[in-house]
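Just wondering, can you check both lines?
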Amino acid sequence: MRYRLTFVAGLALGYVLGTRAGRERYEQLKKSARQFAQNPAVRNTAETAAQQGRQIAGRALHTVSDKVGDRMPDSVARRVRTLRERTTATSGEDEWGTSNT
């Protein structure tokens, strides 16, 4: 899915940069893109994808640290423990201040 979105974005950018339609067509595309991005369904989908990504990353952190924790140097193990404690002690916000819900 990510590759499709990247392709479509590249195609749109190439069209805008390569077209001879001028400023008017550029403004139309910009307005359409803004309306698309502000669509509640699109925003909800993007937030859901971000939340799932955070959950998967958290699970991966715990899985990897459990499997290789005893084989890591102490400095790395301390950092992993710090990250693990931070993720379990957070109050619903990540380190950028965005909500995980």
User: Anything to note?
Assistant: The mean pLDDT is 78. The two ends are 23 Å apart (CA to CA). Residues 29 and 98 are 29 Å apart (CA to CA). The helical segments are 2-18, 23-38, 40-68, 74-89.
